[in-house]
Design a protein that fits this description.
single chain; mainly alpha; Rhopdopsin 7-helix transmembrane proteins; three-stranded mixed sheet; about 5% strand
């Protein structure tokens, strides 16, 4: 007898954030406004940096790439979530689900490395100002951005490869507003302990390593400024505190979802909203408006 392919599920049912139509109408207005602000804000930053000759420093080059990634990351799940608020029966095709997983991890993984690159840029600018121009040259900036994109791509491919071939033949309800691996993999018609461990290790370790590197970088910046420039300590503290806030909001959900899963539905949804909706909105404001250190 020929082996039958068990992957017969053609779509998944998305339960969304809530069931109440009144709350969904309210959330439709809220998330539509947030998404519009996110798109306009990040697009404006990219346009301004490209057109303004005075913003050609390495930091602004990295900031433009961060805004572009945030634009892409917010567009992976938010438009689908907004349109689903208008539907009674919410679903997503198997192919669409795999696309959300791929691009979500692609842009998310790339942003992790890009945030580390921005922290390194600030470390060199503040701790090694005399060597800043030679270290953060055009080649280095392009290399950092390319490394971010390549790492995000490899991370996404490795994640997708572990789940796309799993057999899906039975339950198809996702208690969330988008497709993510920890939820989708639970619907597979097999023992998924080993794939889950590999996926959690891949995403969790990447997020944790980047998070630790960021904390070390900003801690070293604050220590250097406090020891050598008392007058700039408060400005450095304000800037680094704002940056670390965004880092915590971005990496915190990733660490809890993949490395230390809580298995509490409302907490997972809350963290997912921060990761997919709130963080792309906060990054432009924090890295643009709160950047008070004098740029080299």
């Amino acid at each position: 007898m020929e082996e039958v392919n068990q992957s017969v599920v053609s779509d998944f049912v998305i339960l969304g954030l809530c069931e109440s139509w009144k709350i969904q109408t309210f959330l439709l207005l809220i998330f539509s406004s947030l998404y519009l602000i996110t798109i306009l804000g990040n697009t404006f930053i990219v346009f301004l940096i490209i057109t303004d000759l005075s913003l050609r420093s390495p930091m602004y080059f990295l900031l433009a790439n961060l805004s572009f990634i945030d634009f892409c990351l917010s567009s992976v799940t938010t438009p689908k979530m907004i349109t689903d608020f208008l539907k009674e029966n919410k679903s997503i095709s198997f192919g669409g689900c795999m696309c959300q997983i791929f691009f979500g991890h692609f842009f998310g993984g790339g942003e992790m490395l890009l945030l580390v690159s921005m922290a390194y840029d600030r470390y060199v600018a503040i701790c090694k100002p005399l060597h800043y121009s030679s270290i953060m040259n055009r080649r280095m900036c392009i290399g950092l951005v390319m490394t971010s994109w390549i790492t995000g791509f490899l991370h996404s491919v490795s994640q997708l490869a572990l789940i796309v071939k799993l057999p899906f033949c039975g339950p198809r309800e996702l208690d969330s507003f988008f497709c993510d691996i920890p939820l989708v993999i639970k619907l597979a018609c097999m023992d998924t302990y080993i794939p889950e461990m590999l996926i959690n290790a891949d995403s969790g370790v990447l997020a944790t390593i980047c998070f630790i590197l960021l904390l070390i970088s900003y801690s070293h910046i604050l220590l250097t400024v406090c020891l050598h420039s008392k007058g700039r300590a408060s400005k450095a503290l304000s800037t680094c505190t704002a940056h670390i806030t965004v880092v915590v909001l971005f990496f915190g959900p990733c660490i809890f979802i993949y490395l230390w899963p809580l298995s509490i539905i409302w907490v997972d949804k809350f963290l997912a909203v921060f990761y997919a909706v709130i963080t792309p909105l906060l990054n432009p404001a924090v890295y643009t408006l709160r950047n008070r250190l004098k740029m080299p």
